[in-house]
């Protein structure tokens, strides 16, 4: 079976864009990706589109062209974009198609995400008691983790500081100004131990990736950015996830543990073989926990990793080189695809001021969504 390759990428900047709908921003991203791949819309044989709050992605054919293309909508929490990509690469791997599209976009209202208990098979009282407030859950989760593994609040701040510093060099990022560590730590508290600079914000934006079989990629004359692994998994028993109404004393792993292990097995490499990584950072503690859940370090080692700068652009494992969700914001449908977009930029050597040195050859992305869904990809050039 030949590899699936990414032959075109496009992005509409994240943040807030008055006057443009989510679909509009998705269309911008698709047109960029088509130009990048050197093809026209009628060449696309199928598409998977992700959106949570901005309408059905398949409606963009009104703008792109009524070609009768197969277009399937995906809605899977924060992992929607990663799930769309997983589905698209499977369509090519099957041998049914040679050229397809994964696109994601969103345009969320101002304020926090408004998750409803019924959407997660939970009773109304769960929301009435305040348990659907994600800032509280994530704060409780990281507080427990910090206690168990010796992680300091300063380390949480270092994650955010790095994110904003990296985003200065990412034209698609929302927040592109550095924020000093002391300002991050002393900022107004949202949910202890998190200050306002330690959470991402709902946002807007769109990302499109064009996938091709290796044969088609060679015909197009594109550099071969191979999708060596793409996995998507749900939670196992005993996992501790957002909107889970209870926790087992003996935790049984997580969706990320499973998806990550599957991805490394598919790619035939281990965590030590990854040159750059984009990890879900809904809040600064998520990046810390996901470093371990994805196998890059042991629980508790993050304290030393961050203090020594190992996750910086020039460090041992650069993490979230464009600022991640903390700096870019999180339009749910586009967020996971943004990670892969950034990895393609890095493998092409087009990162500018945020470019990882040494011509990286492998890149890893991980996205996590409620109520315990994770998607992982590994790229190789």
From TrEMBL:
Task: Tell me which residues make up the Thiolase N-terminal domain.
Answer: 6-183
- What Gene Ontology terms describe what this protein does at the molecular function level? acetyl-CoA C-acyltransferase activity
The UniProt record lists the Thiolase C-terminal domain at 254-378
**Keyword Transferase assigned:** yes
UniProt keyword annotations, A-Z: Transferase
Q: From the Swiss-Prot or TrEMBL record, give the protein name.
A: Acetyl-CoA acetyltransferase
Keyword Ribonucleoprotein in annotation: no
